[in-house]
Amino acid sequence: MMSPLFTSLVENSLLLMAPEPEDETGLVVSEEQILLDAQSSEIPRYRLQINDKEVIVEELEDLMEYPKIGTVRDLYLDDNEFSDAGVEVLAQAPALENLVLLSLKGNKLSDRAARALAESKTLLHLKKLFIQDNRLGAVGMTALGNSATLAGLEVLYLNKNPLGPEGAKAIAGSPRWRNLKELYLQYTGIGLEGLKALCQSEVLSSVKTLSLAGNRLGEEAAAVLGTCPHLRKVVTLDLYGNRISEDGAELIRSSNLFPRLRALQVD
Q1: Distances (CA, A) of 66 to 8, 59, 72, 143, 247
Q2: What is the band of 43 on the pLDDT scale with cuts at 50, 70, 90?
């Protein structure tokens, strides 16, 4: 049972969200109608954001029994204290079966947490996973990339995880990720070797936003990207902090393999 203090924290952290419109006719909706729909429907309508509150495993277990947890669409649990064991609780919780967004930034998570997410039987509707600033490596990336549960991911934040070249290769080798629209790999140490592996992968074929900032890839990265056949849908490419010159940037801009590129950032 949740303590009165934690119950108050949860209830004050719930935010009612407008439903995502299926077309332009659904863009205008009254606040009153949103509230009525939320009260009369089991469709997840809430965002729950409990960041930097020193949440522990036992509190997560209690939270999964909270009556409204099944109505949460977006769950933010950044910078807390529950570590890998807490993620195992989340991954096994039936109440989260309709979760669309899960944010676990800065929870000291290891590959064990990645395996728990990958093996989950309930997170089948997850579209957005924010798991930056943790301790994930190649083993964790292999688990996530091979997961049938997470095959529908569209947004993946991996910034500031020590992935290294092997982690990038694990992402590139995923047989599942064919719907990714945004991939963030800032400060992950993937190196030129990892970049080359990614550029040979169909994982990038659906990506519209790709961030590789802070990986110190060097000037040669421009040539690698300029000949990458899987970036035709990329609109935004972030290469800040990679020691790529304006000449290198122009090489990318002029490539006919980037027909949709609109924003390119270099040093």
Answers
A1: 12, 11, 11, 30, 56
A2: confident
Other C-beta atoms closer than 10 Å to the C-beta of 170 total 23
Return the CATH number at 96.
3.80.10.10
| Stated pTM of the model | 0.91
Angle at 114 between CA 142 and CA 156, to 5 degrees: 80
| Burial tier of 51 (Cβ tally within 10 Å: 0-12, 13-18, 19+) | middle
Q: Give the number of domains in the chain.
A: 1
Query: What's the full length of the chain, in residues?
Result: 267
Task: Give the C-alpha separation, 258 to 89, whole Å.
Answer: 42
Distance, CA of 259 to CA of 233 (rounded, Å): 7
Domain extent, residue 260, equals: 4-18+27-265
* Tokens matching residue 23: 């077309």
DSSP assignment letter at 24: G
